[in-house]
UniProtKB/TrEMBL annotation:
An example Gene Ontology biological process: methylation
Membership in a protein family: Belongs to the N(4)/N(6)-methyltransferase family.
UniProt xrefs under InterPro entries: Ade_MeTrfase_dom_2 (IPR023095), DNA_methylase_N6_adenine_CS (IPR002052), M_m6A_EcoRV (IPR012263), MeTrfase_D12 (IPR012327), SAM-dependent_MTases_sf (IPR029063)
Reaction(s) catalysed (UniProt annotation): a 2'-deoxyadenosine in DNA + S-adenosyl-L-methionine = an N(6)-methyl-2'-deoxyadenosine in DNA + S-adenosyl-L-homocysteine + H(+)
Pfam family, one: MethyltransfD12
The organism of origin for this protein: Pseudoalteromonas fenneropenaei
UniProtKB keywords: Methyltransferase, S-adenosyl-L-methionine, Transferase
EC number of the protein: 2.1.1.72
Protein name: Site-specific DNA-methyltransferase (adenine-specific)
GO MF terms held by the record: site-specific DNA-methyltransferase (adenine-specific) activity
PROSITE patterns xrefs: N6_MTASE (PS00092)
Amino acid sequence: MSQKTRAFLKWAGGKYALVEDIASRLRFANQDADTLVEPFVGAGSVFLNTQFKHYILNDINADLINLYQELKNAPEEFVSDAKRLFVDLNNHPDAYYSYRQQFNDSVDVYERAVLFLYMNRHGYNGLCRYNLKGAFNVPFGKYKKPYFPELELYAFAAKAQRATFTCLSYEQVFTALPKNAVVYCDPPYVPLSKTASFTSYAKGGFTLDDQANLAILAEQAAFAHNTPVLISNHDTVWTRKIYEQASLDQIQVKRTISPKGQSRNHVNELMALYRAKAGR
């Protein structure tokens, strides 16, 4: 792979460090696929570091998809407007909480998109979290000088011309898979402990029932419709059970959600590849 492209968003669970592992498995799954489908696109590192003719990029987070669509449609205007917020005066708790309130009160998709990028870079640890009423509630991040990702924004906007963005449930995405496609799923991960659960990324969360249902949909797509599916998740007894119909590989990754570098331990991840076997 040539030099990797970074996403413009900070993102818990982002796949930048794993794109080579993921891309090689996607190529193995279907060398001739012309479309990559991502039901959980997140920050888009896999999209940015693979070469498919078409992309269907979905996420249940409407603010994320709105941001991508606005950036795709008007990159120059978006970058110009967003850059104005990245000044020293706005790197302050009072400014941040004022903009956060403006975001939560706004129904204008463009305004929300610009503010979403500001909050992503100025909020705590790049988290994306909402309360039960749907209000963004990540606290101020206290960074010395938040980075404005101008080059990354333009790179994303250029490649996004090949992409269709949707805000649907993962089940809806699986009901409309195109022909000659391969699917990569990066769902919210199964928690490693009872206190590690992080499900408020979007209202409703992602339950263990959803995890099992996703595995069933992957089986159906691969074995009944010959559309390969790759899923990444934590390596646990339970995930190995629900992915028992897939080919499993274990890889080691560093946690990146912890603000303390010394507590970013290596954890094991599973790569579960569903692919129809010859003669099946």
